[in-house]
Amino acid sequence: MSEQTVVVAADYFQSYSVVGLLAVIGVLFVAVAFGAGRLLRPVVPTPEKLLTYECGVDPVGEGWAHTQVRYYVYAFLYVIFAIDSIFLFPWATVFADPGYGATTLVEMFVFLGFLAVGLLYAYKKGVLAWT
What CA–CA distances, in Å, run from 40 to 31, 34, 37, 43? Predict the structure, then answer.
């Protein structure tokens, strides 16, 4: 291997070592914070503290509740289109750069095509009909 290849490889792994060191410091910080919290907090278990509650009200009945799935579907569709809008902003900045116009335009239409197929599928399944 040439000397230039060794230098490039060393620089490459040095940048990853910085990321690794930062990750280790982050994990240690979280571990120390949780350990300090465990050592400093008072532990006095009482039956009232061990009782399950919601919004300060004692539970009545069973813990299972029926939830309609359509609310989750609407939330999922919202997330899909929120992600779509997040991808449109970087695309617009790259589209303005010279030499990338046609490529980014085709890629964005492929991306929007996938979203349109998903929306059409949801429409055909009747998911978008609010009842």
Answer: 14, 10, 5, 9
CB 94 within 8 A of CB 104: yes
Listed residue (104, 105, 106, 108) closest to 85, CA to CA = 108
State the angle between helix axes of 101-124 and 70-96 in degrees (0 to 180), rounded to the nearest 10. 170
Tokens, residue 126: 């009747």
Q: How far apart are CA 44 and CA 91, in angstroms?
A: 55
Spatial CB neighbours of 107, under 8 Å, sequence gap ≥ 6 = 91
Could you report the per-residue pLDDT of 91-125, keeping only the tens digit for each? 777 777 777 777 778 888 888 888 888 888 888 88
| CA angle centred on 11, ends 9 and 15, rounded to 5° | 115
Please list, in sequence order, all residues whose beta carbon lies within 8 angstroms of the beta carbon of residue 52, skipping any fewer than 6 positions away: 59, 63
Would you state the pLDDT for residue 1?
57
What are the residues whose beta carbons fall under 8 Å from the beta carbon of 59, sequence distance 6 or more?
A: 51, 52, 53
What is the model's pTM?
0.40
